[in-house]
Design brief:
This protein is mostly helical and 305 residues long. It has twelve helices and no strands.
């Protein structure tokens, strides 16, 4: 989600609030990093669409009470209505595409690869804005993109000349995550935030579940064995993770948020190593480091604010 400007606060209180905000963002990064491992565990034998559909519906249920309270309070921005629903439908569609490609990719790649490649959406955002919205990217973005591409090559291929299908799916998913962030950035000034979040989760969850029942009916029975993963990713990753991110970014300086949330990929690698025994070669670790530098360079503006 787009970063919100920090609120003006007193000095002593400001330090405490900034620390709490940074801790909220760190917990978000840990939760999202661990979710790659959970998704990786169930990916080979569970329906991509039904799994995603159910976890986003769970996430919507988690946010529902907060969205209802927001609906009851006076707010300068409208909630879900006839004018705002089309924008929410598009956000849900982009979320559906990104989540589908990410979960499908996890069938064929590691949690570490998925985490780092998904993080490339930060680099892709200014490039897509230049291609489709004629917003010229800063020169440093081209360096960031070059580093990200070099790191991706080393991570995915280990130095050979063949990209893995799972990594290509994750890269395609990163494109949709980037488009999703761009689109949400245009909606947050038009729609109340919590209702927007719950609305897009409902769209993604319902559409993904319906598609799963149509195209993967033979895997519908496998969903029962993935209930724990659906609840973990739905409650923690989608519901609580989003709420913590929004709360943290209301107070934390952009530089804090950029750096801490970028650690999601590192936590994905660490959890993959600890719980799945996923090991990276020296070349792959080098690729991860180069990609992380590219991701941070793409957010360089945040470190001057």
């Amino acid at each position: 989600m787009p970063e919100l400007p920090p609120e003006p606060i007193g000095l002593g209180q400001g330090h405490r609030q900034r620390l709490r905000a940074d801790l909220a963002l760190l917990l978000t990064s840990i939760i999202w990093g661990s979710a790659f491992v959970v998704q990786r565990v169930v990916a080979p034998h569970s329906s991509v669409f039904l799994f995603n559909g159910l976890r986003f519906l769970v996430g919507a249920l988690v946010l529902a009470p907060l969205a209802w309270l927001a609906f009851r309070r006076p707010h300068p921005l409208p909630g879900l209505n006839r004018q705002t629903v089309p924008g929410v439908l598009i956000a849900g569609f982009l979320l559906l595409c990104g989540a589908t490609l990410q979960q499908a990719g996890l069938r064929y790649t590691t949690a570490a690869n998925a985490g780092f490649i998904t993080g490339l959406y930060v680099v892709l955002i200014p490039i897509l804005q230049a291609l489709f919205w004629r917003q010229a990217p800063r020169p440093v973005i081209w360096l960031a993109a070059l580093l990200a591409a070099a790191g991706l090559f080393l991570l995915s291929t280990g130095g050979s000349l063949r990209l893995k299908i799972g990594d290509l799916l994750e890269l395609a998913g990163a494109m949709f995550w980037a488009l999703h962030v761009i689109w949400i950035g245009r909606l947050v000034h038009k729609i109340e935030l919590l209702q927007l979040a719950m609305g897009q989760f409902l769209v993604c969850g319902l559409a993904s579940s319906l598609i799963g029942l149509i195209v993967e009916p033979e895997l519908s029975g496998e969903v029962a064995g993935a209930v724990w993963a659906i609840l973990y990713t739905g409650i923690l990753s989608v519901g609580i993770g989003y709420t913590l991110q929004a709360a943290g970014q209301r107070v934390a300086p952009p530089a804090d948020a950029a750096l801490i949330l970028s650690c999601e990929a590192v936590f994905a690698a660490l959890f993959g190593w600890r719980f799945l025994g996923e090991a990276l070669s020296l070349i792959q670790v080098t690729g991860c480091g180069i990609m992380l530098v590219g991701i941070l360079l793409a957010q360089a503006d945040a470190f001057h604010k």
